[in-house]
Amino acid sequence: MLELYHNAVSTCSQKVRLVLAHKGLEFTSHEVDLLGGGQHAPEYVKLNPNHVVPTLVHEGAVLIESSLINEYVNDAFPEPAMLPADPAARHGARLWPKLLDDKIHPATGVVTFAIGPRSILLRQPKEVREANVNA
Length: 135
Known about the structure:
Elements: E1 2-6, H1 11-23, E2 28-31, H2 42-47, E3 55-58, E4 61-64, H3 66-76, H4 87-115, H5 118-123, H6 126-134
Parallel strand pairs: 1-2
Antiparallel strand pairs: 1-3, 3-4
Helix pairs in contact: 1-3
């Protein structure tokens, strides 16, 4: 059985959900409340010491980092394949998640938080904000 710890608006979580859907795989959903600090809960940190989503649990294996989770899912459940058969085409397909992970995601993080949840985070009690920053 697959268990996915994720958040609906998390881009990295969306990547994993897309692969699971493409493969037609069912999973138990565990929504992590990022604005409420759920990623810092001790029971979640035991699964993912990076305090981020997603995390996939499969047959006792705890998997973190969305692109690596997707590679695992493709290896564990080979049909339908996520990558083309041709090695050169596989290389091209692998460049997209690398670009996302190495360039786009880090570059958009500040803008995402400035536009998205910033106002919600600022309305949280000071103790909650400080706990999230210090976690």
